[in-house]
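dude i think i finally got it to work??
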Amino acid sequence: MQNNTLQVLDQNDLPIGAAFLVDNDLLLTCAHVVRSAGSVPGQAISLRTPKGTELNATVDREAWRDENAEDIATLRLATPLDEMQPLLLGASSGSQGHAFSTYGFPQPGQALSGSGTITGYATLNGIQYLQLESSQVTPGFSGAPVFDEVTQRVVGMVVAIAPPDKYQRQGTTAFAVPAETLRGICGLALSDLCPYRSLDAFTEADADLFFGRERVVAKLLETLKRNPRYLAVLGPSGSGKSSVVQAGLIPALRSGQLSGSEKWGILSIRPGTQPFDQLASTGMRDSTNLVQAASDWLAAHPQNERLLILIDQFEELFVSTPPNTRADFVAV
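look at this
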């Protein structure tokens, strides 16, 4: 979150709250943060990016909701903010029990991470909010995004905390404006595509949702550059080998991140009980002679200069493939 959350500055250039980018030139924050910064709808407000760049935005009049209502303000930039990517909004419904993360500025010189659990919904003065349980969220987090760690979407915006009651309860309770309310007031779209794959591997079709393994992909590319004839990706079961190859390495090769790799043909199989049949199903005419089969395949696909064969779940050869078939396949 620290790379996607801006400081809202008061008239002394001190952080008074947070804002986050939801479109190339549009940010969200709380109306009470704008008031505390000394601004009002139609006027300018100062911001500071994570890289320390200071800039101004204009407080929109149309989407303003006073702090006695939904407490929402939209900030319009004069030019798109190229150093940051907009955060995607996702539905808050179904987020109960999910872990969340956020980022705020409780004191001058402080930029702190926050985390906790989405408890569910709450109603205050007739307005519905997300109820959060967190020991870190405090004043200075107002206007910060509530990032659902399960769906990988922003499901709300931090707006208030609850002070402890006379029984010293509710001291770790905070509230957020749900993403559905933000969408309705600000005309934003929700992205309902869930990137969560449970225990399923990410595939090439999921490349846009796959991130966080850039260094591993770079290392695999470097290894292939040194030895383009063979690459082994080793690791414990469930460590993400298939995902990093299918959703990371293969898209990188198709985009030409190795010289000429955009002209490679790429075939993928799982050995199962009949690995030769699996190869044949990809168009390899004589899968019992791999060199000749690869040559024939390239001759039939002259737009490809090399052929890469991915054998995913290679360990199936040792647990599913009959011994004689396994020996013949490895010999190929």
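The first strand starts at residue 5 and ends at 9.
im so relieved honestly
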